[in-house]
Amino acid sequence: MSPPSKKVKYRRVLVKLSGEALMGNAGYGIDPAVIRRIAGEVHELSESGVEVAMVIGGGNIFRGEGLAANGIERVTADHMGMLATLMNSLAMQDALEQLGLHARVMSAIKVNQICEDYIRRRAVRHLEKGRVIILAAGTGNPFFTTDSAASLRAIEINADILIKATKVDGVYSGDPMKNRKAVRYERLSYDEVLERKLEVMDATAVVLCRENHMPLRVLSMSKPGALIRAVQGLDEGTLVTGD
């Protein structure tokens, strides 16, 4: 794999993509135009010599917590959510491969007919060979979100930064969709996120990042070029660190 371009700040990144980000303006499923655009940005990163891992949520199809709230037993609901992340991961793999990238889906649960098992050393080796890895099925355990899975995997593969890509362009003091006076933060500490109960990631994910000194940047995937700018070290979205 070619060395990273001097224009990028981070050599290895993990991108956490919400399932909702794949919907575009639709209310359900995957918008082909959106996934092609995201794949294009990942392709640009990879061509710059950046090693890219991805974790994709399943909220555009099934969200375990939401299913449980509607009467499905929680463990079963979470297993359904894990399968939804696999569907999204396979769609992303296909979009990346159509652009000529080598991509591997690695699952925390065994589905050997469609993808590999997640094995940390193998995942790192794929990255070193220039392949994009898409880490599916969360942690493989119920009650843990894909946010927690993203934090865990970023730490395990020694990523330089965890990027959470959502529909919102950073972390706000309130819901910007409901409160026009909500203020976007440029920088926060992990402790500030936890103390103020800001909706960045769930508390388990934030604590994992804090205890392992994993910087976190939150940005909007709907802004073309946002991912590239973040990996270049520019002030895109909100940066959460231990400072």
What does this structure look like?
The chain has a single domain (about 10-240), classed as 3-Layer(aba) Sandwich (Carbamate kinase), CATH 3.40.1160.10. It has helices at about 30-45, 65-70, 75-100, 120-130, 145-155, 190-195, 205-210, 225-230, and strands at about 10-15, 50-55, 105, 115, 130-135, 160-165, 170, 185, 185-190, 215-220, 240. The relative contact order is 0.16. It has about 240 residues and is an alpha/beta fold. The two termini are about 35 Å apart.
- How many separate domains? 1
Straight-line N-to-C gap:
33 Å
Largest sheet composition: 9 strands, mixed
Do you know the CATH topology?
Answer: Carbamate kinase
Helix content percent band = 25-40%
Name given to the CATH architecture: 3-Layer(aba) Sandwich
Order of helices and strands: EHEHHEEHEHEEEEHHEHE
Question: Gyration radius, to the nearest Å?
Answer: 17 Å
Beta-strand share of residues: 15-25%
Number of helices: 8
State the CATH class.
Alpha Beta
Query: What's the total count of β strands?
Result: 11
Tell me the strand order in the biggest sheet.
Answer: 4-3-5-2-1-6-10-11-9
Query: Which stretches are poorly predicted, pLDDT < 50 over at least 5 residues?
Result: none
> CATH superfamily membership, which one?
Acetylglutamate kinase-like
The computed structural class is alpha/beta
Question: What gross morphology would you assign?
Answer: globular
Mean pLDDT: 91
